[in-house]
Specification:
There is one protein chain. By secondary structure, the chain is mainly α. The protein contains 25 helices and 9 strands. Helix 11 crosses helix 13 and helix 15 packs across helix 16.
């Protein structure tokens, strides 16, 4: 299924700390929590926490579908997303408060904050604004991630708040934003937006005031209620501006209102907004199985950095083995990706290396050593259970730098770097790319293949040749062996040994078998020696 949202240029990811310092944004180090203890002044309904729920791909698709139904009307209003936001501003009170003026000066003096934030917002602004409109929430909330994170999904505070909405782990867990070694739903802009807007809606229903709701989002609802109670006990007003607040919540609403004014009239204030078209231009694609991001980028003919930029929830080389498996791609690449996925059929979407099972192995240890999950190994090898036997060959995923090394190939066009390969029954471009180390796009380019070309048994392709006259040695590690010692013995580099065997470090075990590619003459001697 494919649904649209805004187009995105290719931009490198930045380190979280660098983003925070360079943008001047406010990354919250306090333990923002769902503090909902009833102090006795509110009704029982006020003390209830927002209902926890699971945010998944279906929720995002449903939201995008709902938004798409009104897209034509919104596009007719203006072709500028920021102008569309101005048409739906909802705040009107205390817009020129002294505390607001202070931050107007701050942002005017540092225009790069807004320039960078709007550049980062470009992939996500259409979805967020559309969801705000669908919920009849003030459009100014589109600017709240600038206050929170500078719109940087990779932003992380010292208090472990993460993503553009800066959810701490406990609050993310309450909203069931899945978080593990593969994926962090707090950084998935689409899923975390649904959670953040649910939370803001709940806070507004509790306080019946958007400024108090925002203060509660920043400082905690229990803290805001106690500050209101303290004012009431002294006969003072209990509105946001009258409360005795710590520095951060004291500045939180003024920062947002200052941004509101700058976005209302950017030219007047000398700030630059990155243009965002008022139309959906990204599509969500569901491979329905774990997918290697570099492989998907190759299939969609995208730069891997662009794919990572559009899908910041994933922080390993692939989508999640069991949970989140959706991907956002530019509209022009979506059809290419869907076609390539159809060509793959049910084949795994992971780059792989082969591993020979040894006596004493079990599937759990093999998966752990490969940096993956048992379910992934089962899927890649069509296993119905965990039963394996010594001598059996398994496919294991290769990721990160190993994947890049596995697909390295000499510059195409150099005749010495290519050889002929005759297509056999059951071959596909993908299986050939895996066995030769060439990428799909490289295979197509070298052989002048179109997107719709179908391979037939007997076809001859130009593929990457082995470098030099190499032989292959299967070396069984002995007690006392080290990776550097083995590399010296066979006159190869430690880096090559790691790459050939999918090793992330130098740790090896006695009894383990290493694959080594060496000169033919040396290979003959080595086999005799081993």
């Amino acid at each position: 299924m494919k649904l649209r949202c805004p187009a995105v240029p290719v931009r490198p990811l930045a380190l979280a700390v660098t983003v925070a310092l360079f943008s001047g944004c406010s990354l919250h180090d306090r333990e923002r929590s769902l503090d909902t203890a009833d102090t006795g002044t509110g009704s029982p309904a006020e003390a209830r926490t927002p209902q926890a729920r699971t945010y998944d791909t279906e929720d995002v698709e449903s939201a995008m579908q709902r938004q798409a139904e009104k897209a034509e009307k919104r596009a007719a209003e203006t072709d500028d997303l920021w102008e569309r936001a101005r048409l739906n501003y909802g705040f009107s009170d205390e817009l020129d408060h002294d505390r607001v003026q202070r931050y107007l000066d701050h942002y005017r003096d540092q225009p790069r904050i807004i320039e960078l934030s709007t550049r980062r917002a470009e992939p996500f602004a259409y979805f967020i604004l559309s969801e705000l409109e669908a919920r009849d929430m003030p459009a100014e909330l589109l600017l709240l991630p600038i206050v929170e994170s500078g719109y940087a999904p990779e932003a992380t505070s010292s208090g472990r708040a993460a993503g553009i909405w800066q959810f701490i782990p406990s609050t993310g867990d309450h909203f069931d934003l899945h978080r593990d070694d593969w994926y962090d739903g707090r950084r998935d802009v689409y899923q975390s937006t649904l959670a953040a807007l649910d939370y803001l809606e709940y806070l507004h229903s509790r306080f019946d005031d958007w400024y108090l709701a925002l203060a509660a989002y920043n400082w905690g609802q229990g803290n805001v209620r106690r500050a209101m109670d303290a004012n009431a006990a002294q006969g003072r007003d209990t509105d946001y501006w009258s409360l005795d607040l710590p520095a951060e919540p004291h500045a939180y609403v003024p920062r947002l209102l200052a941004l509101r004014e700058l976005f209302r009239a950017p030219d007047e204030h000398g700030v630059t907004l990155t243009p965002v078209a008022n139309e959906p231009a990204l599509e969500i694609v569901r491979p329905e199985r774990q997918a290697d991001l570099a492989l998907v980028a190759d299939m969609a003919e995208l730069d891997p950095a662009e794919l990572e930029r559009l899908n910041p929830g994933y922080h390993r080389h692939a989508t999640h083995p069991e949970h989140a498996r959706h991907l956002f791609v530019p509209a022009e690449a979506a059809d290419r990706l869907e076609t390539a996925l159809a060509e793959h059929g049910d084949d795994p979407l992971l780059r792989f290396r082969e591993y020979t099972v040894r006596a004493g192995d079990n599937l759990g240890r093999i998966a752990r050593d490969a940096g993956t999950e048992v379910a992934v190994v089962r899927q890649m090898n069509d296993l119905n259970g965990d039963l394996i036997r010594a001598g059996q060959t398994l496919r294991l995923p290769v990721g990160g730098d190993d994947a890049g090394a596995a697909t390295a190939v000499a510059e195409a066009g150099d005749a010495d770097s290519l050889t002929e390969y005759e297509v056999r029954r059951g071959d596909s471009l993908w299986t050939i790319s895996q066995s030769t180390g060439m990428s799909l796009s490289e295979l197509r380019r070298v052989n002048d293949l179109g997107r719709d070309t179908t391979l037939q048994p007997g076809d001859v392709l130009q593929v990457a040749a082995a470098h030099g006259d190499e032989g292959t040695v299967h070396y069984e590690v002995r007690p006392g062996d080290s990776l550097s010692g083995i590399a010296r013995r066979f006159e190869v580099s430690v880096e090559d040994v790691r790459r050939w065997n999918g090793l992330n470090g130098d740790r090896i075990r006695a009894g383990e078998t290493l694959v080594l590619h060496i000169d033919h003459d040396d290979a003959t001697v080595a086999r005799a020696d081993t």
